[in-house]
Structure formats: structure tokens, C-alpha cells
Amino acid sequence: MAKELLKGNVAIAEAAIRAGCEAYFGYPITPQTELLEHMSKRMPELGRTFLQAESEVAAVNMVYGAASAGVRVMTSSSSPGISLMQEGLSYIAGSEVPAVFVDVMRGGPGLGNIQPSQSDYNQVTKTAGHGDYHPIVLAPSTIQEAIDLMVLSFDLADKYRTIVFMVLDGAIGQMMEPAELPPMRELPTERPSWALTGKGNRDKNIVTSIRLGAQPLADFNDILQEKLAVIEKNELRYDELYTDDAELVIVAYGTAARVAHTAVKRLREENIPVGLFRPISLWPFPYQRLGELADRVPTFLSVEMNAGQMIHDVREAVGRDVELDFFGRPGGIIPLPEEVEDKVRAMWRQQELAAQIN
Amino acid sequence: MATLAFQQSEDKVLKPIEKLVYERPHALDETHTHYCPGCTHGIAHRLVAEVLDELGVQEKAILVAPVGCSVLAYNYFDVDGAEAAHGRAPAMATGLKRVNPDSVVFTYQGDGDLASIGIAEVIHAAVRGEKITVIFINNAIYGMTGGQMAPTTIEGQVTTSSPLGRDVAATGFPMHIAELLSGLPGTVYSVRRSLHDTRHIIQAKKAIKIAFEAQLQGLGFSIVELLSSCPTNWGMTPTDALDWVRDSMVPQYPLGDYKVVDELKRKRGRK
Amino acid sequence: MAKGRVVIDVERCKGCELCIQACPQDVLTLSDEFNSKGYRPVFLMEHENECTGCALCAVACPDACITVYREIPQKKARPAPSAAAAD
Fold first, then answer.
1. B19 lies in some domain
2. Dihedral over alpha carbons C42, C47, C48, C50 (to 10 degrees)
3. Domain that holds residue B177
4. C4-72 is classed in which CATH architecture?
5. What global pTM score does this model have?
6. Hey, which end of chain C has fewer CB within 10 Å, N or C?
7. How many domains does chain B have?
8. Chain segment B16-51, per-residue pLDDT in tens
9. Cβ-nearest to B124 among A54, A87, A88
């Protein structure tokens, strides 16, 4: 298939359809509404389920229902809507049914604004609801990557019977880029053995997140943690630029990584040995690879479109023996490459000065 | 369904001497319920199971259980079952039914679950004419948490969170769900019945059957509100509790058909 | 009057007495014995007011633990394979 000029939200919706999404439930919220609108047109055309729910609370529980029936199901929302979905997310995690979420993040807290932001890092990576679990969280930085990760999201959700989040910001959701959509997949003809379809001739199936005894719940948590450990081992994704010889590494994802990418390219022209480490999986977070870099690289900079959320994971990865600084713009402001460059130049001058003194 | 017991008579002809007139419905699981003695949840479960048997839909039924005393209801029915978040059963049922359009999806919800925290979900399920059946247990109290005021607690009723009796000026008035949902075009069947004696239990079962028939015919949203007892939290014997349903709840919550669409009336007329 | 009998699943019975209240013949009562859950299950008394097999006890039972049988009057119990075929 040839490349075409695609708007982020629309490309993601179409990629989900082609990945075999059979049901979509959602609620309008800027800046992801085009995704819902595309679904409202295409899903009925294909004889699949589209429903605009009365709230995000209802939407996530409709997703829970359809996921319990063993179909590929998704919703999309933006930060305040994801806050409302926390309850359902926890139940879905506790029931181990697969479901896919797209969060086109905007500025917070509260109603905040509708500008591009990375304000949900903590709320999606650190459990997304009560209880001990993590969804898989994938963060694309281009529309092509969003398309590819959307397809991967459904595959990972099914593989691990888990929640997969794709998080992006309004910039990627709203921009247009040339990208190639995947081929349309055939829908499966059978449901998984655990799905709720009516018992027919088999024993009844139950989808539940309640385990009343202390030991049964402890046992379930053990099983869940074992599964998460497997995901942490198998599903790490990241990208690197100039990290081989970098003496200062920027850590950034999504749109912040695009900005950092431009800054790194320009700074390299000034012979500043800077590199870029871009986590693609925010959970599992690539702690180990960043830690390896920290064995050699003395200085790191976390660039985020918030007041500093991922930086805590970066700190955990690089340890206390290296410098770690932060540059971020909360409130829905995308940092300019020039701002990142200024920050890096200042850090690099300090680093050189320190080297001379030592 | 009746089976016959036989004895061999002298002329070697088998003669039935006894017939089975009532047995435990097949759609109930063998699991013993955790409900308190005399709790009418068990009666409502049994009636639903009898209806599933009679309609022959046990194999395609999916139950969505609520949060409340009936949180483990899926253990007591031999059908596929899910456990929803508090109040969200109609939303979860919507998801299940939309992708399983040939199945028979029903929620079983108490008054706290449906009328308080889940009122938006049940109203919008009805607004959409969602082809699900809702069994609504109104016992005027929060049972599982130990007897707090519910949206259906009647005026003056003492609960652990209205110790002086429900003061409607401060806490609002009892909610009339069957009437409320009957006002929505997507609702095809909305009735209130009571479980306080055998005559009313038999009437309740007929209503439950019509509610499921409404779903099977693809007509829209159906709900049966069942006035029920909570002997433990009311502090009464099971039999006194049923008298309280009759004497205190029925006057507050009149029994009756609040909405029955013509398609269901015609079907009943043919019988 | 038709004669019947009821079979109680004593382990399932919680002794709530709703069946006793529902019984028009007053032939049900609580046992002096306890079941394994500590409840006194109901049982069918043998006395002059016989069970008619009306099943109202089962209609009232919250634990679905009552099975009801009713005798078929012998004159109506004529086996007739041809009649059955006519159905």
C-alpha cells in the first residue's frame, strides 16, 4: 500500500479497524474526537459495533463488557476522560480481559486545556486505577509509528490478556503526515475459550475481578505479577540516536522526542556530543538500557511536556551517580527546539567546566 | 417438564402414580447461596432461573452481576456471568449484548447499585432501547454494607445512616424507578411487582417472563422492579419482613404495569 | 383432595420459615436437628392435614430446596399409547 497524507487521529482509527477492532465505545473529548468520528462512519459500514456512550464511565464499562465477550475492542479519550475511566481500567485489569485504549493527552490538572501535553504519564504508567498492575503503554512520535503501534496494541492485548494504552498528545493526533496503513485483517471466526458468549454446551464462563478471600486475592496478584514480569522482559521498546558516543543524553518520548530530535541534530553540528534516548514503551520502561548508558554517560536531560513525570523513572534507571536535569513545559505548551538547545548548551558548558576543574 | 414415577401393576402395565410438580430450575447452579435466611434475593434468583428454563435460553444467557449483596450472583446461576463495577452493569451489559446480539443478556441490580450510583447507566441503556433485561431488587436499604439509607429508603425509615428515620427534606425522596424508566421511549416494559407472598411471587414470575420475551423479540429495554425484603438489616424475622414489604413498601411503591408496549400486550392477548 | 409430598434438600435449607407461612395445609415445620450450616431445616409432618402437592412452599422458598410431587389419581392414570400418539 502506498503512503498517503493522513491525520493522526484518523490514521489511528483506521489502523485499529484494519487490526481487527470489532467494537468501539467512546465519548467525545478534544483533542481525540476525530478518532471517534471516523469510527462512527467506518464501523457500521463494516458491520461492526460503534456506540457513543453517555460518559467515559459508561464507555469503559461497555469496553469491559465487549472485552469479556472476547472481541477486539477499544476506546479513545483524553486526559480528563481517562481519569473517569480509572475505575473500569482497574476492573478490566482484575478480570484479565484484553482491551485497547488510546489517550490523546491534553494539559491538566482539572479541565486544564486542550493543548498538547504529556500530563498523563503517571496516571497511565503507574497502574491506571487502584490495585497492583500496569497496562502496557506505548508512545508513538510519528503518525506512521502510531499506526504500527495501534496494530501491535491489539496483538499485545490479546497475547497477554491485558490493557494496552497508546498515548500521544494532541499534536500527533491533529497533525497530518505521509504514512502507510496496514492491510485489512480478517476477523477471527471463533471467540477465545474464556469468553462470555452464552454457555452453550460447555461449562459456564465467569469474568470477574472479585476474589473475596485474602489468599485467593494474594494468589491472583502473584499470577498477575508473574505475567507483568514476562511483559517487562519481552516488550521493551525504545529508539536511540547518537548514543554511541554521546556524553549527554536527552530522554524524551512522543512529540517531546520530535523536538529533542531536531535539537540533537542541530547541536551535533556544533560538535556537542549529545544523543537522544526515546522510550517507545513507557511501561515497561527501558530501565536496563538507560542504566547501561549511565555506566558511560555522565549527564542526562529529561524533556517532557509536563512538570516532570517520566524523570522519576529516568532517575531510577540512571542511578544517583550521574547528573539528571529536567526541561519541561506544562500547561499544553510544546517546547521549541531552540529552548532545548539552550538548555543543553548550558548543561554542556557546566559539564566541560567541571571536567576542566577536575 | 413433568416427569412421572412408575410402579408396575399386576397386569404388567406401567402406571404413573406420582408426577413431579416442582423442581429446582436447571438454570440455577448447585452452589449454595450466601444470602441470609429468608432473603428474597433467593426467590428472585429462582424466578429468573425458572423463566430461563421455560424459555429455553439458559445456554445463551449472560448475567451481569452488580455490586451489593448479589455481587456473587453469577455463582448461583448456571449461565455465563460477569461482575460489573458498582452501578455499571447496564453499560457492561450493553458491551456484551452489542457484540453478542443473539445472546440473552440480563443485569441483576439492587437499589443502591441501580438507583444511586448507576442511575446514569440504567437511564441511558433505556434511552438507547438496549435489548437487555434488568431485574431490579428494591429492598429500600444498602444490604451488603450493613443497612445504610438507599435512594429507595422510605420516608421515616430508620437505617444506620438515617438513625432518626429518613428525613426527606434533608436527604431527598424515595425514587420510583419503574415509573421513571417507563417515561423513556426505549423502554418497552417497565413494571413493579412484589415478592411478599406466593400470589405476588407468581405474578412477579409472569412479569419476568414477559421482560425476557421482550428481549427475545428484540423490542428494547425491559425492567422488572421487585419489592424485596432485607430481614437482617431491617432487624425482623423473615416472615415479619414480608409483612413490612406488604404494609410499608407497597403503599409507597404501588405495584403495576408502568409501561407495556403494544407488541407485548398483543402477545399476551393471544395466550 | 390430591395427595402430594415434598422433598427438602436439608443442607440447602436455612430454616427461614417462609414455606411454613406459605403452606395452606400447615404440614411443614422446623426440625429439631441442625444441618451442617447450623440451621434447623424444614420437614413435612405426617399428620391428618396431608400435603396436597400444591407447591406453594416451593414458590415461597428463597433457596430452591423444595421438590414437590403430586399423586395422580389412578382412574386418570390409564396408560394409553394411542392417546399419547394422538397428542
1. no
2. 40
3. 26-270
4. 2-Layer Sandwich (3.30)
5. 0.94
6. C
7. 1
8. 688 999 999 999 999 999 999 999 999 999 999 999
9. A54
